[in-house]
């Protein structure tokens, strides 16, 4: 039985073109309920047996809200609107009995939807879809790229939570081929290997496991984000993003004085290569819905690609992977003591054309603003 409700734009290619246009969104509309209305009664998570994948902890470390309003979560979301819905298919070796479940991140409860399909592998598969209305309520025609980026961030949060629980090979599907659900993460029980990794799945991006405390502490630093990151920290953040966001995306960072310009990872990954000179941050601020604080951020990590003639699977893939990679880069940034904030709303951000290359090829898809000091610390010094 198909339960997932299809929330996808009638024409993603046209939706992205509109989102990139200078047109401003109109007045807000109602966001609707904060959680999808799953059928049936909510159930608490059973205690995990020895060797089982603890689904309760997995979701606590990735998607659960830790406050009543639902704002404080391990995964970020554009406008804190949290449109991503999670449906779990549970196989053997988990703390939940096999079956299909809807997850309520506000109450941290599951709703049983039915039996698991034949051939369900051990572990849990989280299918990620969106209730578009939530993000549309604030961002209007700018919502669709944000919904896909949010889904990529949620996939990354699950990936990191699985790694923190000792699962060495969570399998992340961000190929963009499916419209709904656009993304899925399969997590085998700890100590067991997942199915053979398809060539297209996200590559293992981090050398060391994240800790549960680190995942729960992740927040987007409030702007402004002044202070240039060290070369070492910037190189680590770029390397994480480039490893995780493979394929169609190019990764670079805009840096300010004393040598303003754009840097990218050198071929050997051990150094930064400067490939454009000149101050880019004020232009980035203008392109990002006029968020002036971006002009003074210490650096801005950029995911670039998704040409104007990209088809719907390409658009999905680029945005899902950009969200996934920026989330991992955010955790790396924090490990290096940096303040960081994702930036996802981009209009007319044709970076390639601005650098004199062919127009319509290299658009800013997503970004992570970086600084060394928080605004609060600034105010007290
Ligand atoms: C896809 C995406 C796009 C975002 N875009 C912006 C942005 O353009 N400007 C901004 O200040 N914050 C942006 N954010 C950060 C959110 O506002 C932030 O995640 C949200 O308020 C929840 O706060 P938290 O990340 O501290 O949990 C974005 C986050 C995501 C995931």
Structural account:
The chain has 381 residues and is an alpha+beta fold. 28% of the residues lie in helices and 19% in strands. It is built from ten helices and 13 strands. It has helices spanning 12-20, 55-60, 132-139, 143-164, 212-217, 231-244, 281-287, 312-335, 351-354, 375-380; strands at residues 42-43, 84-90, 99-104, 109-114, 124-130, 171-173, 183-187, 250-255, 261-265, 272-277, 299-305, 339-343, 363-371. The strands form two sheets. The chain has a seven-stranded antiparallel beta sheet with strand order 1-4-3-2-5-7-6, covered by helices on one side. Strands 10-9-8-11-13-12 form a six-stranded antiparallel beta sheet. Helix 3 packs across helix 4, helix 4 (143-164) packs across helix 8 and helix 6 runs antiparallel to helix 8. The termini are far apart. The mean pLDDT is 93.
| Ligands, ions, cofactors | flavin mononucleotide
Helix percentage = 25-40%
What is the level 1 CATH name of the largest domain?
Alpha Beta
Beta-strand share of residues: 15-25%
Structural class determined from secondary elements:
alpha+beta
Strand order of the largest sheet: 1-4-3-2-5-7-6
Q: Give the CA-CA distance, first to last residue.
A: 60 Å
Characteristic key phrases:
381 residues; 19% strand; globular; 28% helix; NADH Oxidase; alpha+beta; 7-stranded antiparallel β-sheet; 13 strands; binds flavin mononucleotide
